[in-house]
Design a protein that fits this description.
Elements: H1 2-27, E1 44-46, E2 52-57, E3 66-71, E4 81-89, E5 98-111, E6 115-122, E7 127-132, E8 140-152, E9 159-167, E10 169-181, E11 184-185
Antiparallel strand pairs: 1-4, 2-3, 3-10, 4-9, 5-8, 5-10, 6-7, 6-9, 10-11
């Protein structure tokens, strides 16, 4: 009897966890949700050469928070990239033709680089295509500006890694991501 009860509780908790995990990369598009350790749910920060500060900040387009990438004062002259990324799995993409991602970006003293969105389409073992919105990036100081990226989807796309990134010096805030697959919003 105890074993059946334990297995029932385990199955229920796994089901609840899988439902939450299955939505984590989608539901936190405004950077408002955090795990028990204070980390942003569904987003991963990357700064391989440790030239940037990546954090959640209270300067937001809407809501309470946005993500902030800022260059460190001692970063040196070598250009690098820092990013926040999230993942969309194949079950959202099957039989679809296009993906469009939008987000709002604000910059302060941005120089020698860009603040942009990016999308990476992944196959089983390789990158199929990549695209960024560097051409939409403004230099210096800019208020909240909406950026958009769109890419065609092919049958062999297994996942999409997307997010925001900054190169160069200065600060960039990113907020209010939206994802559209074949013009339908992904919730």
């Amino acid at each position: 009897m105890e074993r059946k009860f334990f297995l029932s509780i385990l199955c229920i908790s796994m089901l609840c966890h899988s439902r939450v995990c299955g939505q984590q990369f989608i539901r936190n598009l405004g950077f408002e949700d955090f795990d028990a350790f204070g980390r942003t749910i569904g987003w991963e920060g990357q700064d391989q050469k440790k030239k940037y500060n990546l954090k959640i900040d209270s300067i937001a387009h809407t809501g309470k928070y946005a993500t902030l990438i800022s260059s460190k004062p001692d970063a040196g002259a070598e250009k690098d990239t820092a990013l926040f990324g999230s993942l969309i799995m194949n079950n959202v993409l099957k039989g679809k033709n296009t993906i469009r991602i939008t987000a709002w970006i604000k910059t302060e003293n941005l120089s020698d680089g860009s603040a942009s969105l990016w999308i990476k389409l992944n196959g089983m073992r390789e990158t199929i295509a990549e695209k960024n919105s560097d051409s939409q990036s403004t230099k210096g100081n800019s208020g909240w500006t909406k950026h958009t990226l769109e890419m065609p989807l092919t049958f062999n796309v297994q996942s999409i890694y997307f997010g925001c990134r900054m190169t160069g010096r200065g600060k960039a805030w990113f907020d209010d991501f939206e994802i559209f697959v074949d013009d339908a919003p992904v919730k």
